[in-house]
Design goal:
- This protein has one domain: 3-Layer(aba) Sandwich (Rossmann fold), CATH 3.40.50.960.
- The chain has 146 residues and is of the alpha/beta class.
- The strands form two sheets. Strands 2-1-3-4 form a four-stranded parallel β-sheet, with helices on both faces. A two-stranded antiparallel sheet has the order 5-6.
- 51% of the residues lie in helices and 25% in strands.
- It contains five helices and six strands, in the order βαβαβαβαββα.
Length: 146
């Protein structure tokens, strides 16, 4: 018998692993609270998130996709390019696939700011990204039901 649970693909960047593992822990906690089934996929960095998010969305196995990563500013403009393209790519997947795709990518000036948002004093943005995806999915379903 098929499950009626919400199915979520969580795509998480391995770069800045100390931060992204905390984001993933928060995401899994939120999914458990919402009784959602989750599959986790790893990519090297935030730049690769949209490609795997698109593959997950197009697979037909998921109701929503959550993208998690951490891009920390360095001494070069690399930060700006990665952040902009990751955000644009994730948004494109959501619009092209008409599916909730949450952007749980931290874009911070330093590691301390990232850790504060990955289970520290500012909560866990991985948790928030799952809540965002589930809430958006419910509203989409309500709209479709008329």
């Amino acid at each position: 018998m098929a499950s009626n649970k919400t199915r979520i693909a969580v795509v998480v960047a391995s770069f800045n692993l100390a931060v992204t593992d905390n984001l993933l822990e928060g995401a899994l906690s939120a999914a458990d609270k919402h009784e959602a089934d989750v599959d986790v996929y790893r990519v090297p960095g935030a730049f690769e998130l949209p490609l795997l998010a698109a593959s997950a969305a197009q697979s037909g196995r998921y109701d929503a996709v959550v993208c998690l990563g951490a891009v920390i500013r360095g001494e070069t403009p690399h930060f700006d390019y990665v952040c902009a393209q990751a955000a644009a790519g994730v948004q494109r997947v959501a619009l092209d696939e008409n599916m909730p795709v949450s952007f749980g990518v931290l874009t911070t000036d330093n590691v301390e700011q990232a850790l504060a948002r990955a289970g520290g004093e500012f909560g866990n943005k991985g948790y928030d990204a799952v809540v965002c995806a589930v809430d958006t999915l419910l509203e989409m379903r309500r709209l479709a039901a008329g």
